[in-house]
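Researcher: Good morning. I'm working through a list of sequences from a screen, and I'd like to move beyond sequence-only analysis. For each chain I'm collecting a predicted structure so we can compare shapes side by side. This is the next one on the list. No need for commentary yet; just the structure.
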Amino acid sequence: MEHAEVHIREEKYQISDGNKKWAFGLMIVGLILAAIGYFTYHPHIEGLGEHDLHHLIQKRLLSNLLVNGYFFFIVSICAAVFISISQIANAGWYIAIRRIPEAMSEYSLVGGPLYILISIIALPVLYHWAHHGIMDAESLNFDAILASKSWYLNVPFFYVRMVLFMGFWIFCAHLFRQYSRKEDLVGGLENYKKTYALSAGFTVVFGFTFSMFSWDQMMSIDAHWYSTIFSIYNFATGWVSALTIMYLFTHYLRGKGYLNIASDEHQHDLGKFMFAFSVFWTYMFTSQFLLIWYANIPEEVTYYTERLFGSYKFLFFFIIFLNFIVPFFIFMRRDFKRSRIVGFIVGGAILLGHWLDVFLMVMPSSMNIATNPTDANPTGIIKVDFQGIGLMEIGFLFLFAGLFLWMTLKALTKANLYPTKHPYVMESALHDVGI
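Model: Good morning. Structure tokens for this chain:
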């Protein structure tokens, strides 16, 4: 393929009035919708008294905060993981779009502390193992299974892990941005080498810590259940979503005349990543399901009985359609990966699908009501059917999406839109997928 003449130049992004309207409009409309949804939610469920129903309203509010806080935070951190993996792979093609994942990772500066605050409020309400008396053998609420896990599942250790893991990830993401921007000023290989060394350490540590983070934040909502694939499955959700947002931002910036060294070749490669890792997500989703289904162990199958045979059944199959069927059959075509219109349709479907994926991890367990165990109900948990996706869910999604959009756009203005002095910048500018 022949390339047009390439000019490496300073290219600054300016936030337009339209950008501000979209970002702040989403936040304001989202906050209003969430408030309306909260104050108009009056559940009437047979067998539940007024106290339990009031508690259910609180649980739905906190569950929505948890879903969105977790989803957007892991997306921002997976953007930093994309940088680290590309760096240690000595990849050159991605340099043209590198500032996009750098900007996405900057959301973690706000999203991280916000998620910790959400967790502090949500832990005693949504996590059964954190309820008073659960680990106490003298209590009416005592749960022997959860008590056996108390060495790991206890509130102080939970927060120590959470703060250490998130703090380390956010700090490394900050260093990636710092080294990259210094490179623009001084050139040379010093900051490139620092980024390479940091990437190697960060990638290894992230692999272990993210596993525990996903166990803590998502799997322990139903602490009787466990899966050995769950952490990889969670990573796949964040990873595909981060790749999709990078793809959409690249389309948007190029459409506005920015990223002069990015081409359809870069767009094509990002599309291939979306295609490939949508298949990877499906592989993890199917592997977890089939292993649990085949083994038929009561402690494991409980997760799927609620989602596959209960009121969440439609969502279970809908996320397969959005996260696998849509990207697999549409992005098979080479030209569709490069098409702005098709790309935004597929990208929107993937993002909605993976948000619903996290929603489905949280809601079926977090909305259940905990009572004293009885002979008839030894777990002490009353199952609550799916309460639907209403104004509260849409509102909080808009609110967090607007915040993520604003933080990313604002971060894009802080440096040149691509690293002008990176040693691989010309390799990226001349990138050709070869087909």
